[in-house]
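Extended Data, panel c. Modelled sequence:
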Amino acid sequence: MKPSSSLSNDQKLKICHHKAANPSIKQSALANWAMQEFKLSKVPTQGTVSNILAKRQQYESMDSTELTSKRQRAVKHPELDNVLANWVLQCQARRVTLSGHLIKEKARQFARQLELGERTPEFSNGWLAKFNIHHGFKAQKSYGESGSADLDAIDINMPTIKEKLQSYSLQDIYKMDETRLFYRMAPDRTIAQRQIEGSKKDKTRLTFVFAANVDGSHKMEPLIIGHAQRPRAFNRKSGEQLGFYYRSNAKAWMTGLIFREWLQKMDQQMQDANRKVLLLLDNAPSHVVRDFPLTNVQVFLFPANTTSKIQPMDAGIIAAFKMRYRRFQLQDAIDRDEQQKADIYKVDQLIAIKWHTGLFERETQKNEVGSEEQDIENELKDAINQLPISRPMFVHELINPEEEQQVAHEEISDEDLIKLSSSQDQEEEEDGEVMDENPPMSTKEKLNVLHSCI
């Protein structure tokens, strides 16, 4: 029999069980075991093994027919499934009690909004059970007063935070946070405001998710969230094929489902490293950890309105990343201006991500701060002075625009949930591909045209 290169769901489940029986085994050794055990033609990649381990719950919920398949049974209505799951997670973040009946009624409402028509499921108890199993949701119940004593309670105070932190070494305390990036934003106040206001149409936003430990000895692979699964600039390749961790939805926002996938991946990495760690998070609606099975990561949600004072990410890694990203951007704009390009700030999504690649690696090093920051700030000032700008920004405005700090931490409306869950199979019309043939008119030219019309 010719060796196969793909795994059935049953084999994937056996990989998960082998890992559970041998918790100290490395993913590389697990991959070699799988190749020998299942007589594969090649060793599964580390990414493949990691994804398999992260989906253990899904494999354990499959019936015998699904287990013998090499493909996971597709959800019949993926848009409905995604929007409803994100709604449930958002309700959990707000500590709203959900009954099975309420979930089914909300599903019917979303089905009408999605115009499923005759394709609308029956929303039986069997459908509800499969939905809960697929997403790992436990039977819904009222948490009552006991919820106020949980680790993620919002009324904990600073002494409690300090006590919790003191029980972990610095290398075992991690912080994760998200930030937006308007990756084509011009350092001109007038142009930038117009770009930001139109960003919902031209899709020039990305969300970056950073995580690192306190002493800077370990930084996790950044997650990048864009608008489409395969933007045109990706040349029909996935983010994984291009070498970065990439997910997408219609608004390029962090959602409950994306967050749970990220958190499961982190927990798996800590299992592989045989480490127990503490993860610090803010109280964003997407950061839902209740009833989520974690073995090696303990999650601590900051109390409301405290993250701005005890937030190491914004003050350090994110600021350093943005400062260096803008240096790449302005240097490129100067080159394009010298080449008399029509839009000197117009870059595609892949270029923006490539500029990011390597920056996080460097800027999470422990002592890489201080004089270099001042040198980069001076470079940015010089670059702004070299560019044709009518209302130049200050450097701090360029690095920390207010709009980039708004990472959709507010509750997401039903309308936006539907937009977030809309199909992203199509290629995005790449914003950086089509260049204007004629350069934009200067202010003087516009005034001359205006005078000629009077």
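Residues 312-338 form the longest helix (27 residues). This feature is highlighted in the accompanying rendering.
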